């Protein structure tokens, strides 16, 4: 079954073709992502209306490009999966409208996919995917969650951020130090030249039990340190390193606790911050010491992409699930715990 996946939840248009007849990475026949970073940079953040309009412009050309790279015709598509939520309602409607229209025209099934389930399942596209039960760390600009995965589609929220998501904290911290949008990746790159220990910030909420996160106070600590410093290039790098170390160590501590609580030894990590090199190294170190395993998607599949939507949709379509209603509907706010099990 060849599944076309369409992702349009925010400011990236993603399209992919996933072929269930193949195994591992080979099953991903082709995928492409168009980012709107340049469009939104002048505003310092995503403008929903502009995001929707750009999805309108880019989705169909990206579908044509991806099908060509996969070497298949549109008539060879067996199903269409699309992001139905959560996300920006206008952006979601564009992807859903294209997907439902294609499915109707081709007379093939369509299925709406939960955006965060797509992220969660992305590491399972590997040659040797982990089997549930495991714990998932979903860490991005919009989410920081620890989820116990008892089986595909059966999720228990163990902990989440009470304020800023980790990726959001990266972006906001970068902005307060004058780095241009989107600042998170630039802050991480700057931290590579920072001196370890030059600035040591608190590891929020690690001195108490529980699996929730809070990064707002850490952001304030960085702001105070930055204002009191000489604001030189090296100091900026040192503060960036101190901030990154605090976030990474906080995530690692909470992941270890989550594994203990869930009684698992396997951790999967997904979402844009999952591409962070220092986070990957620290979690691999933690898993090694515990005699467990940590799995990541390739860095290109950490950010929003159509591959994760095609894969998640394929799993549910193979289980006999589909959206029979031809109405174009999306769910901007959607609790992943309400999803049916596969």
TrEMBL record:
<comment type="function">
    <text>Required for the formation of a threonylcarbamoyl group on adenosine at position 37 (t(6)A37) in tRNAs that read codons beginning with adenine. Is involved in the transfer of the threonylcarbamoyl moiety of threonylcarbamoyl-AMP (TC-AMP) to the N6 group of A37, together with TsaE and TsaB. TsaD likely plays a direct catalytic role in this reaction.</text>
</comment>
<dbReference type="GO" id="GO:0005506">
    <property type="term" value="F:iron ion binding"/>
</dbReference>
<dbReference type="InterPro" id="IPR043129">
    <property type="entry name" value="ATPase_NBD"/>
</dbReference>
<protein>
    <recommendedName>
        <fullName>tRNA N6-adenosine threonylcarbamoyltransferase</fullName>
        <ecNumber>2.3.1.234</ecNumber>
    </recommendedName>
</protein>
<dbReference type="Pfam" id="PF00814">
    <property type="entry name" value="TsaD"/>
</dbReference>
<feature type="binding site">
    <location>
        <position position="119"/>
    </location>
    <ligand>
        <name>Fe cation</name>
    </ligand>
</feature>
<feature type="binding site">
    <location>
        <begin position="138"/>
        <end position="142"/>
    </location>
    <ligand>
        <name>substrate</name>
    </ligand>
</feature>
<keyword id="KW-0408">Iron</keyword>
<keyword id="KW-0012">Acyltransferase</keyword>
<comment type="similarity">
    <text>Belongs to the KAE1 / TsaD family.</text>
</comment>
<feature type="binding site">
    <location>
        <position position="304"/>
    </location>
    <ligand>
        <name>Fe cation</name>
    </ligand>
</feature>
<feature type="binding site">
    <location>
        <position position="115"/>
    </location>
    <ligand>
        <name>Fe cation</name>
    </ligand>
</feature>
<keyword id="KW-0963">Cytoplasm</keyword>
<keyword id="KW-0819">tRNA processing</keyword>
<dbReference type="GO" id="GO:0061711">
    <property type="term" value="F:tRNA N(6)-L-threonylcarbamoyladenine synthase activity"/>
</dbReference>
<keyword id="KW-0808">Transferase</keyword>
<keyword id="KW-0479">Metal-binding</keyword>
<dbReference type="InterPro" id="IPR000905">
    <property type="entry name" value="Gcp-like_dom"/>
</dbReference>
<feature type="domain" description="Gcp-like">
    <location>
        <begin position="29"/>
        <end position="311"/>
    </location>
</feature>
<feature type="binding site">
    <location>
        <position position="276"/>
    </location>
    <ligand>
        <name>substrate</name>
    </ligand>
</feature>
<dbReference type="InterPro" id="IPR022450">
    <property type="entry name" value="TsaD"/>
</dbReference>
<feature type="binding site">
    <location>
        <position position="184"/>
    </location>
    <ligand>
        <name>substrate</name>
    </ligand>
</feature>
<dbReference type="InterPro" id="IPR017860">
    <property type="entry name" value="Peptidase_M22_CS"/>
</dbReference>
<dbReference type="InterPro" id="IPR017861">
    <property type="entry name" value="KAE1/TsaD"/>
</dbReference>
<dbReference type="GO" id="GO:0005737">
    <property type="term" value="C:cytoplasm"/>
</dbReference>
<dbReference type="GO" id="GO:0002949">
    <property type="term" value="P:tRNA threonylcarbamoyladenosine modification"/>
</dbReference>
<feature type="binding site">
    <location>
        <position position="171"/>
    </location>
    <ligand>
        <name>substrate</name>
    </ligand>
</feature>
